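Internal tracking record. Fields below are filled automatically when a chain is submitted to the structure queue. Please do not edit lines marked as system-generated. If the sequence contains nonstandard residues, flag them in the REMARKS field before resubmitting.
Queue: standard
Priority: normal
Entity type: single polypeptide chain
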Amino acid sequence: MAKKALITGVCGQDGAYLTQLLLEKGYEVFGLDMNTGSQACWRLRYLDVYDEVRLIQADMADSKALLEVVGSSGPDEIYNLAAHSSPGSSFRLPVECGEITGLGFVRLLEAAREAGRHSRIFQASTRDLYGAGDGSAYNESRPFKPANPYAAAKLYAHWMARIYRESYGMFICNGIMFNHESPLRGIEFVTRKITDAVARISLGKESRLTLGNISAKVDWGYAPEYMLAAWQMLQQDAPDDYVIATGQVHSVEEFARRAFQVAGVKWSDYVESDPALMRPTDIVVQKGDYARARSRLDWKPQVKFDTLVEIMVEEDLKRWKRCLNGEQFPWDIR
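SYSTEM-GENERATED OUTPUT FOLLOWS
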């Protein structure tokens, strides 16, 4: 009998890749999101899995709805990816961020507990828990010091996962995931902002790329690999928390340079930095130590930085060329 999985935030980057992965493994997948319309779920359509997942429209702020979803779907595994996922926007919407990113997860835990389900649960935690980095590699034992409302909400969810695990004996894993990118990344994130702009500039549709703090250094990985790690966590004999990262850092400037190089365009002719685009508390350097994941999950990153940037730039170039040729397809720009 096929395993059942419930994915919250199914229409996001991670939700789409995780859906694809689980379907390939023979799971029956239920996907929950606030908006499950065809356009909102463009990523699922882009991966050609939209019609294979059983979509459920529900709000993480609605306890009753979550209880009904868990009860009716009967999941063996639950993956909580739902969140207001932009640290920058969390300063503008701190209450909404806390409501969904923090309390939403606890409502989901309560739904699983009240429904009597013994589901294995994955909570998507974040490197933002650590705050500004100091250049050293951060592992699961490093103290947390959140520097934005998003990170504070994620920290609440992180600790509640541990409390429910220890108090109720629930199988819950926190995946402390460092930045992970892909062609399905939202256009509001700096990596896709860069690769989309590079594609448009190379095709003569744009003349400038304006960025914020280009000296910020980030540990960037490839999203599909990180979803594999999430799945692997729930296949273990016992639950635990894991840092998922590459252990390598690169600056925003390096990302931009590499992106323009892939497109064959001189980056310095088009890039400018605007202090107004910097966060009130911008993270400067962060690097993850994935030793626990390597030893216990046999997981390690395969896609390196240069390849990641190349994948993203080439996909955005293909999209814009298809668009300019009049082709209709699911995409976040249009």
